[in-house]
Design brief:
Elements (H helix, E strand, L loop, with lengths): L15 H34 L6 H34 L1 H10 L1 H24 L5 H30 L4 H4 L2 H5 L4 H26 L5 H12 L8 H10 L3 H10 L1 H27 L6 H24 L4 E3 L3 E2 L8 H7 L18 H14 L11 H4 L5 H9 L1 H4 L10 H15 L13 H14 L11
Antiparallel strand pairs: 1-2
Helix pairs in contact: 1-2, 1-5, 1-8, 1-13, 2-3, 4-5, 5-8, 8-9, 8-10, 8-13, 11-12, 12-13, 15-19, 17-19, 19-20
The structure holds heme C.
Heme C binds next to helix 15, helix 16, helix 17 and helix 18.
Length: 467
């Protein structure tokens, strides 16, 4: 069997998924601001050149231009950071995304280059150019920024809803998958919203504008909030494009996920309600503090939304194709026979901490199968989760992992490996007592574990998977 092992990094008490998640949320927020910022600058350039809004040009050439540039640089850096961390955590997923979609990535990259060039030219020479040239650069920038969203969105949404790709393996079936359009449109609206809110903060912070000009600019920027009225419809459409069990988890099935969905929806509703009532009907002025608060709500909404989207894929990183722990569904039956780590060539980073062979084996099993979603004693720590359980309870719950929680993959190793993992958890729970020895394993215990493993089978809780 040639199961591909990779050296997997460890981030101490921080769960690996959490490291990617936190970086991802920051990246998505910055990148979406850069996209919306490009569109907003086009709009203000049009207002300026058509004489509809006198201070519009000053606003673009002031702080806002700088901010779009910063967000787009930070967006690019955190984007590279995403690659950097995810290849240390989930190389097989990244390999699959690159392997199946390499031309899409290449196209995305050309859009990104265009975005850099257009953005930089505008930043550097914008003030010296005439209106037509300025508009050309801004439109190029905005189209390129939105274009990179278009291409990446195809790959990210494929991970959650691969759709017909599962049968055809055609790149376009994967790209234009069931959640492609709702996700793209929703993210476009989010980008516009973030840009409008940041613009309100910036307008308030620019000392050169008096109150009257600020009011004019803020009312213009607020136009970008109006499309938010489509968000509820798009959000529901997006959720409906998900597999039924993912939807069930985020709408009550998993308390944590439901809470994050509630945070996402709640924050968006607050922003939307404020935008509608205050700006459009009351024609109120948004001051700096309120605008900053609304931006914070938008960040909370992004965090909730991204957390839910990432979490809804569980137990897969590519739905029905690859489990979160980088094991293919079709590999499990054999890994149960030969052992999941018997050929893992990578040593434990801190092998000396584990006094016996058995505990080391347990640690390798944990590293391969569980550590993407669990730590031992940190975030989602196994010691805390199973603290009050007997060893036999631990054996049963782990042997039937996909029944214990439907968002975990089936256990993918031998009975000996499972027993080693249980002994590791017990040893950790006891505070790593010295003097552990490799006693022979009890044959009856192993037989019981094997029985439970056979009973649970190798299919995920949803009952279907590819290959
Ligand atoms: C795809 C991510 C993922 C993987 C892989 C995973 N788990 Fe979990 N596991 C979770 C989540 C999420 C929870 C829920 C935690 C909670 O309820 O707060 C959980 C809960 C648990 C629980 C507690 C169940 C209960 O009823 O309270 C145990 C025990 C557990 N996991 C063991 C493991 C072991 C052992 C492995 C590796 C063989 C593993 N998990 C692999 C995500 C995962």
């Amino acid at each position: 069997m040639d199961f591909p092992y990779y050296p997997i990094n460890d981030f101490g008490p921080l769960m690996k998924g959490l490291v990617i998640g936190a970086l991802g949320i920051l990246h998505v927020f910055l990148a979406q601001f850069a996209i919306g910022g490009g569109m907003l600058m086009c709009y203000f350039q049009w207002l300026a050149s058509s004489g509809r809004c006198a201070p519009a040009r000053q606003f673009i050439d002031g702080f806002f231009k700088f901010l779009v540039l910063v967000s787009f640089i930070l967006g690019a850096i955190t984007g590279v950071g995403m690659w950097f961390t995810s290849i240390q955590i989930s190389p097989r997923t990244i390999g699959m995304m690159v392997g199946d979609f390499h031309w899409v990535w290449a196209v995305e990259w050309t859009f990104f280059c265009l975005e850099i060039v257009a953005g930089y030219c505008f930043y550097r020479y914008g003030t010296r150019l005439d209106d037509a040239a300025r508009m050309t650069l801004l439109v190029l920038y905005a189209v390129a920024a939105w274009g990179s969203l278009f291409w990446i969105n195809g790959i990210l949404s494929w991970q959650l809803t691969p759709g017909r790709w599962l049968e055809t393996h055609s790149i376009w079936d994967g790209f234009f998958n069931p959640s492609f359009w709702p996700s793209l449109l929703y993210r476009t609206l989010v980008s516009m919203t973030i840009a409008a809110l940041v613009a309100c903060v910036v307008i308030n912070a620019m000392p050169r504008f008096d109150r009257e000009r600020r009011t004019i600019l803020i009312h213009r920027a607020a136009h970008f909030l109006l499309p938010m009225i489509f968000m509820p419809v798009l959000g529901v459409w997006y959720l409906m494009s998900w597999p039924a069990e993912s939807r069930a988890w985020v709408t009550g099935g998993s308390p944590a996920m439901s809470m994050f969905l509630a945070i996402g929806v709640g924050s968006s509703l607050l922003v939307g309600a404020y935008a509608l009532f205050a700006i459009w009907w009351g024609k109120l002025y948004i001051n700096g503090a309120t605008a900053t608060l609304l931006c914070a709500l938008a960040l909370a909404a992004t965090a909730g939304g991204e957390f839910v989207r990432e979490g809804a894929r569980k137990p897969f990183t590519v739905r029905d194709v690859l489990y979160s722990n980088s094991i293919l569904p079709g590999e499990i039956a054999q890994l149960r026979q030969v052992g999941s780590v018997s050929e893992d060539p990578f040593p434990l980073r801190d092998a000396a901490d584990y006094p016996t062979q058995r505990l080391q084996l347990g640690a390798k099993v944990f590293r391969l199968q569980c550590s993407i979603c669990h730590t031992m004693r940190g975030v989602n720590g196994l010691v805390e989760l199973t603290g009050s359980w007997s060893d036999d309870q631990r054996r049963l719950m782990i042997a039937q992992l996909q029944r214990t929680k439907p968002f975990m993959p089936p256990f993918s190793g031998s009975a000996v490996e499972l027993e080693s993992l249980v002994q590791l958890i017990a040893w950790e729970a006891a505070g790593r007592p010295p003097g552990a020895t490799d006693a022979t394993l009890d044959a009856e215990t192993l037989a019981r574990i094997q029985n439970w493993l056979d009973e649970a089978g190798t299919l995920p809780a949803s009952g279907h998977s590819q290959n």
